[in-house]
Amino acid sequence: MTAEAPIDIAPGAWSPNRDRAKLVQNIVKFICGAFAAISIATTLGIVATLIFETIAFFQEISIWSFLTDTRWTPLFSSKQFGIMVLISATVMISVISILVALPLGLLAAVCLSEYATPGVRKVLKPVLEILAGVPTVVYGYFALLTVTPFLQTFIPGLKGFNALSAGVVLGIMITPMVASLSEDAIYSVPRSLRDGSYALGATKRETVTSVVLPAALSGIVASLILAVSRAIGETMIVTLAAGANPRLGFNPLVPVQTMTAFIVQVTAGDAPHGTIEYKTLFAVGMTLFLMTLVLNIFSFWFVRRFREKYE
User: Fold this and answer.
1) Domain limits, the chain
2) What is the CATH architecture assignment of 87-259?
3) Which of 9, 81, 205, 268 has a 20 to 30 A CA-CA distance from 29?
């Protein structure tokens, strides 16, 4: 008997398995595209809602008074709409939180990436990231019931509701974000840079401060900007700990009201739907959206401008 020669299938010939694989690929591509389209449509819907309602607000209130008034009393009989009152409180608490999160997060990142052994790093990093999973309402009560009484023993003039305790606890909350992202940036610095520094006689500290941190600067700054965006948009901590007293200034020892705290106050039912008081909700939301958008654009530009590339 003679063996039959195998039947060769030309590359372009029809095959049931090939058609089935192509169909599956098209289905997967369609599902992925649909989810991407849903995300884009949701974002556009949010932005459109803010824009239309903000336009309706500015048809009744001038932009000039919105930006220059020194009082914020839209829920009172004498209405004034000075958004700078809320912005000053938001910026002050965010600055306090960064002053707390920057040293804690950066030092934790350096410790995890440069000094900790692999076993210690495996334990410490998940423990640090547990802080990111704590509900923000728990942080708010922690600031109100624990941090504020503790600070009052050192600062007698500190009020029960204040920006200082809210900013400190907010800084603790965003520390895992700064630490995790900064640690990733530091860990990605090539080993050859460290070895070159050691070869020149540099110590561990000199290598970290003069070589590793400058090389990871873009990632560290990006983590800080993302943390600031997170701090600006935080709601429950500032609502519970900072109070609801809109005042212009940068005194961290007194009650203040941030933009997110005012949004919570309005959505709690203090303003009827369709009124000018209700429309301030969207004007404040648009201001908050623009602030975080500017920060994210700056972060994107900074990373692209100063990112170090290694072969």
Assistant:
1) 87-259
2) Orthogonal Bundle (1.10)
3) 9
Q: pLDDT per position in the chain (311 positions), as tens?
A: 455 555 455 555 555 677 777 888 888 888 998 998 998 999 888 888 888 888 888 888 888 888 888 888 887 777 888 889 999 999 999 999 999 999 998 998 888 888 888 888 888 878 887 877 888 889 999 998 999 999 988 888 888 889 999 999 999 999 988 888 888 888 888 888 888 888 888 888 888 888 888 888 888 888 888 888 888 888 889 888 988 888 888 888 889 989 988 888 887 766 677 778 888 888 898 999 999 888 888 888 877 776 666 55
Which pTM does this prediction carry? Answer: 0.83
Q: How far apart are CA 172 and CA 194, in angstroms?
A: 31
- DSSP per residue, 255-300: ----HHHHHHHIIIIIS-TTSHHHHHHHHHHHHHHHHHHHHHHHHH
- Alpha carbon distances (Å) from 106 to 162, 223, 281, 282: 26, 10, 36, 36
Nearest to 75 by CA among 281, 293, 242: 281
Helix axes 217-232, 83-110, angle to 10 degrees: 140
Q: Which residue matches tokens 């500290």? A: 205
